[in-house]
Every structure is written in structure tokens, then in C-alpha cells.
Amino acid sequence: MAHNDNDSRMTAQQEFESLVTRYYSTLYQFAFSLARNEDDAGDLTQQTFYAWARKGHQLRDRSKVKTWLFTTLYREFLEKKRRQTRFPHYELGGVDQDLPNVPPAGVNELDASAVLQSLSQLEETFQAPLSLFYLEEHSYKEIADILGIPLGTVKSRISRGIAQLQQILTDGNQPATTSKTDPRG
Amino acid sequence: MDNQQAKEILLRYRPGTTDATDPEFAAALEQAKRDVELGRWFERHCAFQSAIRDRFRQLTAPPDLKEKILADYRPAAVVLWWQRPVFQTLAAAAAIVLLIGLAYIWTQPGEDKSFAALRNRVVRNAQRGYVMDITTTNLGEIRRYLATREAHADYVLPAPLEKLPGDGGAVLHWRNKKVSMVCFALGNRNDLFLFVVERSDVPDAPAADEPEFTRIGKLTAASWSKGDKAYVLAGAGDEQFLRKYLVP
Predict the structure, then answer these.
(1) Nearest to B139 by CA among B200, B213, B196
(2) In chain A, domain spans
(3) pTM: predicted TM-score of the whole model, two decimal places
(4) Which of A17, A20, A120, A185 makes the best surface tag, with the fewest CB within 10 Å?
(5) CATH 1.10.1740, domain A1-98, yes or no
(6) How far apart are CA A13 and CA A56, in angstroms?
(7) Dihedral angle computed from the Cα positions of residues A10, A12, A15 and A20, in that order, rounded to the nearest 10 degrees
(8) Assembly ipTM
(9) Do B62 and A116 touch (CB under 8 A)?
(10) Do A53 and B55 touch (CB under 8 A)?
């Protein structure tokens, strides 16, 4: 019996390692696009896999693993954001770094950080859909599942988000409005 | 679909992905192939899309992130439903009930198939009250009735009983074996009860035709065997009383 337990534990660990190898990079990219700093992105990614280790066995449909991981990461982000809103925490020198000016230059002249900074200037409701859109890991249906919003809303937000992003990147302009609404709204 | 509508659709198109198979984009893609202006716009869009996508892909996770995640791995203790405390408690309770049941069964005496048990049953039954299948004074008629019921009808009566009038007869059952009952009328509402059973149906049936006497409740019973039959005669009297009907 002990032999079987060891076998099952090894199998679970192997599955976990396989999942980490396959998804940790894109999960980190998604996390960074949301949190826009390395520490929070790393924490979110770690928390996501920690959640998987605890609850992943409850997922019966193993084809949904990727969606489950991204959904979990997004919820962790929202929860973390909610806590930070209640108890704001600023590190010295961190605030200026989070909101740099985006030069009105061609996209090819920008690095990833600058693109993400542009993304951060979008209305909040557009940011997560657009991040998932550009990661190109998910269908529109999966994006809707991850964000917990209707498919039509996902498409609408992506279209409007792209338009705003193009405007920001080409004109260097701020969007007309700055939303303070729930990112899922 | 005009070009503006096509642009609105193609704005969400991601080249090199499964979007190409999405029917939503098919018509707009066809239009972009046909319309030069739309085609140029679409090329610029694809370049923009690819550029942004590449910027996302430039985001690289910290080199030690994967190791950190793996180091933190603690597999969940998967508790299967039968391993949950509530089910374990129920299983334990069920096991206890089962053991009690088995203990009860084991401690119960086995099914008593002895002749004594048969005798005790039929004689006590005669004292509690009984129903005769046939009521007649004609002993021959009683015998015939028992024969028609495939009960024991080839019994041999002691001579004194042959002289008594009948009262009736019945077919009883003992451990799935038939027992013939013949009642003799003694007058004054007194009866003698004769029970006949196949000798082989009761392993410890009396071996000889010399009767054994025993008291069962208010009746005295005499037991004997003759041929392939075993007999019990019961009546409200003592041994001497019964002997009068056994021995000429």
C-alpha cells in the first residue's frame, strides 16, 4: 500500500511539474500585465500554482486546466487589488515608476514594459481582456470564462481596448476617461 | 458588409491563431482580400497585433520563479469520500451492528430437529387449541382424508385405539415435514391425540415400540416407533391412563 501511495504521490508531483513547466511563463506574463511589477506578478503566479496543488484534484475536466489556472490567477489579482485598495501600500520611488510617460513612437520602438505601461492607461475594464487577447493563449470563449463575463462583452471590450491602445501608442494621449469601476463590471 | 464593419471584426483578429477558423472572421477576411484599401489596413493591423503580442512574450519570468513554485509544492491530501470522518464513523457503526447481529445469530441455538422438540411442539399445540381439517367419528374416513392430503395414512393403531371413535384429523407441518394428527373422542369433552410422523424425518425417534412417557404441560405423552413411523399419543391423564390405550 505504501508503495502505491508513493506512486500516486510521484504521479501527482510529476503532473504538477509538467503544469508548471507548461504554464508558468504565460501565467507570469498575464500576472505582470495585471500587476505591472515583477514581485506581484511572481507572487500571483506562485499563489496560482499553490491553489492548484491544494484544489486542482477537484477539477474533473482536465482539459480545463489552463482556463482554471488563468481564472484563479485573475481572482487572486482581484482579491489582492481589493485588499490593497482598503490598505494602500506604496514603496518609496514606486509610484513614479508605475506611471511613466509613453513616447508617441511606433510600436516596434517600444519595449514590453512600455507597452504594458500603455496598457495600464486603458480603462480598467479593458486591461484584463486585452492582456488575455494579446497573450494569444485563449479563445474568446475561454477569455469570457476566465473573466466571468459574457462572450459579447469580451469582444466588445477587446475591440474598444484595442482602439484605445492604438490611440495611446500612436498619439501618446491619455484615454478620455479613467474608470474606477470594478474591473469585472 | 462594408469596410467599416469588416474593420470592426478584423480588429479582433489574431493572425496565426485559431481565429482563422472562426466563422465570424471568414467573411471579413475574404473582403480584406478583395478590397485593396481594407487589405492595406488589415496588413497594418496584423503588424500591430504581432508587435504587441511579441512585447507580451518579451516578458520573461524571473529565472528562479519555477524553482520557487516547485519548492513550495505540497500535494493536497486527497481525502476520498470513504476516507472522510463521517463515512468512517458510519462504516464503524455499520460494522458494530453487523458484529452484534452475527454474535446474536451465533449465540442462538441451532434449529432443534430432535424428536423431543417435535413431541413438545405438537403436544403443546394440542393444549393451546387446534383446528381439525376433518371432523368425523369414522377413523377410516380420517385415514382416507389424510391419504388424499398425502400425509401419513398408513399408520398402525394400537388395538385399544382402534376401538375408540374418532373426533377428527388434521395435517400439521414440522420443519417442512408432514405430521398426521388423529383425534379420538373419549367423551366428556376429552380427547386423545395421536401424532404420526415419518421415522426418518426425526433422527432420534424412539427406536423400539416400547413407549416412552413424558409429561408436557397438562398432558402426558407416550412415544414409540413401529415400522417406518414414529408415534406420539397425548392425553389428559398419567402414564397408566395412556397405557390403557396402548396395550390391549
Answers:
(1) B196
(2) 1-98, 102-185
(3) 0.53
(4) A185
(5) yes
(6) 12
(7) -100
(8) 0.73
(9) no
(10) no
